[in-house]
Write a structure and sequence with these properties.
53% helix, 3 strands, three-stranded antiparallel β-sheet, 257 residues, mainly alpha
């Protein structure tokens, strides 16, 4: 799964073979020769057993692991912004959209640029007693605008959507980041997509995927789970103490309170 967050999907046959081998490894107490022979039997029966084995284990599917890694890379690209090429492509492809109707509002901009500049300013002041004086009037306006968009994303008023540019072919999009899993990302609920900017994004996507029905296709949903799928409450609803604008130390104090 190394670098899986930037690669395209496997072929259906390769993915199924890998997923089956993974599930076989979850059954260490069964006689290996018997279980391997049984796994090549009736496909309908064995598929149900494999899905149940994976569900009982509490492990994610390979596709869910890949999607979670992809989700995490989007978070790091937005918050840290060190990989210039990834950041540029993500900003070009991602739009901030209305959470209710999906209307495009504005293309994603560098939401954490001013936060990084402030962190850099604090570092040089603390370590070398050097003041860079970055907080101009324009800088403060940009910082407040970024914070407004963060709050709106946190409250699920707006969300993010990755839109493939017309000059990128469907074949190219299958192997290009961030388009390789963009359709799957866009199928996530609004609050999950909006929460990709958060520091605790791992808990958000993990909590959602734990409630997702397990299946051996590379998609979030299948024929068996589109109806009656478990509804997972937004992470922000279950963690009212959290605030997107809290500093790390303040959030820690709230957690301990």
């Amino acid at each position: 799964m190394h670098n899986c967050e930037v690669t395209g999907k496997w072929t259906a046959a390769e993915h199924l073979r890998a997923q089956n081998n993974y599930v076989r490894g979850l059954e260490p107490n069964r006689h290996r020769a018997w279980y391997f022979k049984k796994s090549d039997g009736d496909p309908d029966i064995t598929l149900k057993e494999r899905i149940q084995t994976l569900t009982d284990s509490g492990h994610p599917t390979l596709f869910e692991s890949k999607l979670a890694a992809y989700y995490g890379l989007i978070n790091k690209t937005i918050r840290i912004g060190k990989a210039h090429d990834l950041n540029e492509e993500l900003m070009h492809a991602t739009w901030i959209v209305d959470g209710k109707y999906g209307h495009q509002i504005i293309s994603l901009f560098n939401l954490y640029h001013t936060d990084r500049e402030l962190a850099r300013e604090r570092y040089f002041l603390r370590e070398f007693n050097i003041s860079s004086r970055t907080q101009t009037k324009e800088f403060r306006i940009a910082h407040h605008i970024s914070n407004i968009f963060k709050v709106l994303l946190y409250r699920n008023c707006i969300t993010l959507k990755i839109i493939q540019p017309k000059n990128i072919s469907s074949e190219a999009s299958k192997i290009m980041w961030p388009y390789s899993l963009s359709n799957d990302f866009n199928e996530l609920p609004n609050y999950i997509r909006a929460s990709v900017i958060r520091k605790d994004q791992k808990a958000v996507i993990k909590g959602f995927l734990q409630g997702n029905h397990k299946h051996f296709i590379q998609a979030l949903g299948c024929d068996q789970c589109y109806d009656g799928k478990r509804k997972v409450l937004p992470y922000s609803v279950k963690n009212l103490k959290k605030n997107i604008l809290d500093s790390e130390s303040r959030a820690k104090v709230k957690d301990e309170g």
